[in-house]
Design goal:
Radius of gyration of chain B: 20 Å
Number of helices of chain A: 15
Oligomer: heterodimer
Number of strands of chain A: 7
CATH topology of the largest domain in chain A: Rossmann fold
CATH architecture of the largest domain in chain A: 3-Layer(aba) Sandwich
Structural class of chain A: alpha/beta
Order of helices and strands of chain B: HHHHHHHHHHHH
Strand content of chain B: under 5%
Strand content of chain A: 5-15%
Helix content of chain A: 40-55%
Largest sheet of chain B: none
Strand order of the largest sheet of chain A: 2-1-3-4
Amino acid sequence: MMNVTYYPGCSLEGTARDYADSIRGVCASLGITLEEVPDWNCCGATAAHSIHHRASIELAGRNLKLAARVPNKDMVVPCPLCYNRLKTASHVLGSREAHQYRMALDASTPKIWDLANFLATDDMLGKIKERVKKPLEGLKVVCYYGCQASRPPSVTESTDWENPQSLDKIMKALGAKPILWPYKTDCCGASLMLSRPDMGSRLVGKLFDMARRVGAQAMVVSCQMCQSNLDMYQEKIEKDWGRPIALPVPYFTELIGLALGIEEATSWMSRHFADPRPALRAARI
Amino acid sequence: MQQTVLNPDFSFLEKAEAAGPFYAAQCFQCRKCTNGCPATFAMDLYPDQVIRLAILGQKDEVLRSKTIWVCASCETCTTRCPNGVRIAELMDYFKELAVRESIPSPEPQVLALHQAFLETVQYAGRVFEGGLVPLYTLRSGQMFSKIREGSWRDDLRMAWRLYKKDRLPLVPKVIEGKEEVRDLLRSS
């Protein structure tokens, strides 16, 4: 058993409850106890860093202060944007510019992990492999990482930002076949899907086209912002582009759950818009 | 040949660097930022042009550009810049400055979404997605056009599907430290 501090982020209490449930389920079966940061607040997201810089550091900073009170050495963050903002705050508050802000970092601040990277360490991959009951053999996927877990590497401390590997390693451990493709870290448009839907549709449409071209049966994600742009808006993008897509967009944790034989795994995925079942049947899962 | 008189405001970049630093003066115009940018199709200035204009003290052109608002903050430019110019971060600085100086955004919906987002955070300490979309629709002045075009039905259908899938909470979760959060969000 191990205890890990957990910063879920706002979406995981709302539109990404499916992701949240799969994380709880998978961590429980891997022997990881998640301890939520008490009374955490929004990380500020794109809105704060776009028009209120000081608040963007201090909102994330308040979460780091609260996380420091939980006596664990690691904190996992499933949402790559929250991860990015918390890393940025810890980077800035630990730098020479720290005096411009109204808070200081505590010595007991835990190490901040992107959840996918945390579950892709050799140790964790070993644990996952040991527990695989139903290998996802034959399932061809593309892993779509998006922007925020990798970039900029000066903040995220990523070492493979142009060709990240965490999700690919996890998919291999589950027996699935991750396809090498060029758009792993290309942008989905994020919140522009709401404010400039034409831009969102163009950016995501390009991803779908490439995913289909390389023969993917599913696009695996770790970011709920990417997930909602790819999944909730898929029907709209089909109309905009005038061609069928029908690509399921599972969270990597849902596929871990499926391979580990966790019963609820299919119910997590049934809460998406694009139905994952045809792809899973085609891959005989 | 037509000649235009430029009135450079060289303090523009100096002030930006004092708030950053963003290292814009290191730019040698290789255009790697522009070549890797996924959003150039929606921009009126390319990212490298924004940097160049900033160096040349062309404050108005930069702050009135669409580019700073349609930047998706994907950080590809900052990541790949061979000279360490923090391009995406500089775009943020320009947006904030434009708001502070009451320069109208040529992309009012982008600004309206950011403001609606922070408004819900101010209220509850966390984002309340169930309230964000209606608030944004109201703040961005799209309420009437949505009613006129009938696209409000698509929004409602989406909300209903999410609700049925238990992914749309109807009540915001208000945190205990919401006053603290409000304080952090008060403008400087």
